[in-house]
Amino acid sequence: MSIYPAKQHLAATAAQLGADAGVILVFGGSTLVHPDSDTEYEFHQDSNFFYLSGVNEPGFAAAYDVASRTAILFARHVSADEAVWIGEQPSLRELCATYGFDAAHPVAEISAVISGLRPAAVYTLPESAERVAALGSGSWVLPEAALLRAAVHEARVFKDDAEIAIMRRANQISSAAHEALMRSARAGDAEAALRGRFVGLTLARGAQYEAYGSIVAGGRSAAVLHYTRNGGALADGDVVLVDAGATCGGYASDITRTWPVGARFGAEARAIYGVVLDMQRAVLAACAPGRLWEDMHALACAEAARGLLRLGLLRGAADSIAANHVVGFFMPHGIGHLIGIDTHDVGGYPPGTPRIDAPGLRYLRARREMRARMAFTVEPGLYFVDAVLAQARATPAVAQHIDFDVVARYRGVGGVRIEDNIVITESGHENLTTCPKEIEAIEALRAEAYASEATTVA
Amino acid sequence: MSIYPAKQHLAATAAQLGADAGVILVFGGSTLVHPDSDTEYEFHQDSNFFYLSGVNEPGFAAAYDVASRTAILFARHVSADEAVWIGEQPSLRELCATYGFDAAHPVAEISAVISGLRPAAVYTLPESAERVAALGSGSWVLPEAALLRAAVHEARVFKDDAEIAIMRRANQISSAAHEALMRSARAGDAEAALRGRFVGLTLARGAQYEAYGSIVAGGRSAAVLHYTRNGGALADGDVVLVDAGATCGGYASDITRTWPVGARFGAEARAIYGVVLDMQRAVLAACAPGRLWEDMHALACAEAARGLLRLGLLRGAADSIAANHVVGFFMPHGIGHLIGIDTHDVGGYPPGTPRIDAPGLRYLRARREMRARMAFTVEPGLYFVDAVLAQARATPAVAQHIDFDVVARYRGVGGVRIEDNIVITESGHENLTTCPKEIEAIEALRAEAYASEATTVA
Question: Domain Aminopeptidase P N-terminal, which positions (chains A, B) (predicted)?
Fold first, then answer.
């Protein structure tokens, strides 16, 4: 396995910081325990620390001396008693080799090692600020922690080749699990059983954990945007929306597929699905350096308006539909977000960028110009949320464009979303998500699920 | 589904408290977010609050008026905007019915509702103490939070029929998954793949999450007691130790099985396995009201000494082996612990009970007299931990009893543990764990794994 480019990330962060001297010093996460219990939360490393260290264990710290370009790892101490329970730890020399650092010391030596560098300043993150101040005991110059935070965030926005390779793998593993569900799930299966199979398959292929709470929403439940209860069962005639992604090698994937519980899409679901697929195609075709992310949202809305006009759910002039944000009542979320170590990755709103207060756009998680090596989700969707449609009905400028009788015929579809993960390239984008989304391909997989008696989800 | 007996638990806690007036007021857990990220930790309710409310959602509180025996639920507020994302919430009336409470109010009304009861005192838990003090704004009498904590802990020690039924189900689901692994895993499979399959199968059958970090340890890795890295692959000739349990309906299961990677146990593994099985049989036969838990540990050690003497790993007199805690160097953990909502459940050391400072016993997680309705794990094990055996060699009183040449022949076994979950009954115990542990039954399952070409773990 190649070494995670932590040292390059420390250098990229120092460059963003614009500092030519001083030391960056950050602490990793600790083991977290449930209240009044000794049950540990599954350990997930703090994202910024993972980016700067590649270490996925509790109790570590990392430093970078900007002028000499020296990366220093600080390893937790494991006592002989503890080693009986968690195993012998690698030597400091082995840790350097594993993580690509120039030096390694026990965490107990942080203060001495850093002071020995006589740093002009010690930059740290808000989460580490108190501990760093205590270690410096008044003798270190400590710039505002927000400075390093902004620098790390901006560095994290641009994925290097190693990160893209990891994200490709995370997408492949999650895509394969999505495809396995489409190939095997049947009417009557519990939503929780599909989630279980997704988690089991991705863990078995090397994933660390779910990147976020999986959504398996049959029928009307897909109209609840963050439906993670997964408490129902799949009903024939419905579509099921599966929004699930595994974190692998520290990087999230975030994929949604919507498919019929039976072997084929019903007429209404097929029509809505086709519109959402058109929305995604329109956005993907436009993703390239120099384009604005909020324009991708607008593109998706324009395509949705065309489709919904064709189907008769909307009526009136396209420019008035756009001006009144009518599509925002059918897609009450943003077109996508940056993705990386975090599912909703950092850097979507550079300092000073305001949110746009309009239906749908309000929840847009990024507003900036696309540039090569940025990674985004592209996740158009159309939903029939009663409460949101009631708002639309109560807003005359919006209601004039909606034929609520036609909408009522589509209500049973619940919601459709199609979500892929992409990386912006010099000339356009690379789509990392590999599972089928064309109607014919999905129906072929669904036919397989019903072809064999032997297949079961659990 | 029957209603979780939260109200009975509030009453049992009030009885333990010895109070005949006043109000119990406790807060449930909140959603926890990773540092500098919007990624939520999977929500696990605080154990004490779950016991007193049955609510497995963030943002709730519960109260109990001791004199009038009134159970009052306080429900989080979900705004219309939020409902689009997480769904419409049940009404207060529906919440009362779901959780078996007498009344329900929004959390915003806690202060008014509790003050309206004119309570003689407001009992709360340490985790809630600050918020309760703020709500009372000086006008409530607030006894030490440690009082309610001790009362809840003692009430939780004794499982009622509803809790035992849930634990039976958690054990069945986990047992079936253990059996599925034995029936399908093969040499070459990744340890992580077995964990993935375990998690997937249990989630698919209704489990909430792993009760603790699963251990899948092939060969020498089983000599690391809390090996959760699961980074290796199964090698023919080894045994694999699988310690995994799902939480279902709020209650943990905690099961270990050890089995050959090939179709049959090798000679050394079979011998050690037989001794561990004898240890468990001896303890289970003795589990009954009135017996002391630390005596179960001693029983297991005595049985282990007999077995290891027979095999030639130990030598000398049984009483000297016992007096020098020689078996503690082969089983450096306790014989078991209380289990319930938490894997290591509360109440193992009633106030004033000291730990015993001796090898193995040092880590015993409970010291008390068994009584009906207590639930325990019974988990004897024998391990060949180099560092621990080096300590034994350096301790003359211990080393005289060990034939290190014979021990060296068994080192490759790594470790063997067999762990079941039991409930103490009036006459003895009920074993909740249903997966096979007899050598013949295990080898029959292992033969199945190699019988068909179609079976794979992932």
Answer: 4-133
Judge: A200–B205 Cβ closer than 8 Å, yes or no: no
* Of B88, B127, B229, Cβ closest to residue A35: B127
Closest CA to A333 of A271, A285, A382, A395: A382
Q: Which chain A residues are within 8 Å of B210, Cβ to Cβ?
A: 42
Reported as a single tens digit per residue, the pLDDT across B224-276 is: 999 999 999 999 999 999 999 999 999 999 999 999 999 999 999 999 999 99
Contacts with B126 from chain A: Cβ below 8 Å: 36
Q: Do B84 and A387 touch (CB under 8 A)?
A: yes
Measured between CB atoms, which of B39, B41, B84 is closest to A225? B84
Contact at 8 Å (CB) between B337 and B366? Answer: yes
- Say which CATH architecture domain A6-156 belongs to: 3-Layer(aba) Sandwich (3.40)
Q: Cβ A458–B35 below 8 Å, yes or no?
A: no
**Whole-number Cα distances in Å, B71 to B24, B45, B104, B105, B114:** 9, 19, 9, 11, 12
Tens-digit pLDDT profile for residues B442-458: 999 999 999 976 545 44
For residues A129-133, give the mean pLDDT: 96
- Quote the CA–CA distance of A283 and A415 in Å, as a whole number: 19
* Residue B246, strand partner residues: B210
Q: What is the pLDDT of residue A24?
A: 98
User: Are B201 and A200 within 8 A, CB to CB?
Assistant: yes
ipTM value? 0.94
Q: Which of B424, B299, B294, B295 is nearest to B354 (CA)?
A: B294
Q: State the alpha helices, DSSP H only, in B216-292.
A: 267-286
Neighbours of B124 (CB within 10 A): 29
* CATH of span A161-451: 3.90.230.10
A39 at B interface, C-beta within 8 A: yes
Tell me the shortest Cα–Cα distance from A416 to chain B, in angstroms: 15
- Token pair, residue A151, equals 């620098």
Interface test with B, best of A31, A33, A37 (most B CBs within 10 A): A37
Residues in chain B: 458
How far apart CA B109 and CA B75 sit, in angstroms, is 10
Which residues are paired to A244 by β-bridges? A255
**Mind telling me how many Å the CA of A127 is from chain B's nearest CA?**
7
**By three-state DSSP, how is residue A173 classified?**
helix
The one-letter amino acid at B85 = W
Distance from CA of B109 to the nearest CA of A (A): 25
Could you tell me where in chain B the CATH 3.90.230.10 domains are found?
161-451
Return d(Cα B247, Cα A361) in angstroms, integer: 40
d(CA A86, CA B385): 12
| Rounded-to-integer distance, Cα B190 and Cα A200, Å | 13
Cβ count within 10 A of residue A6: 23
Q: Which is nearest to A263 in space by CA: A184, A198, A189?
A: A184
Residue A80 to chain B, least CA–CA distance (Å):
8
Residue intervals of chain B classified under CATH 3.40.350.10 are 6-155
Q: Which residue type does A32 have?
A: L
A394 touches chain B (CB under 8 A): no
Helix axes A293-311, A267-286, angle to 10 degrees: 150
- Interchain CB distance below 8 Å, B37 and A86: no
Q: Is A212 on the interface with B (CB under 8 A)?
A: yes
- B387 contact A CB<8A: yes
Is B218 strand, coil or helix? Answer: strand
Q: What pLDDT digit, counting tens, does each position of A341-353 carry?
A: 999 999 999 888 9
Domain B6-155 grouped into CATH 3.40.350.10: yes
Where in chain A do CATH 3.40.350.10 domains reside? 6-156
Pick from A39, A205, A206: CB nearest B343: A39
The string of pLDDT tens digits covering residues B17-51 is 999 999 999 999 999 999 999 999 999 999 999 99
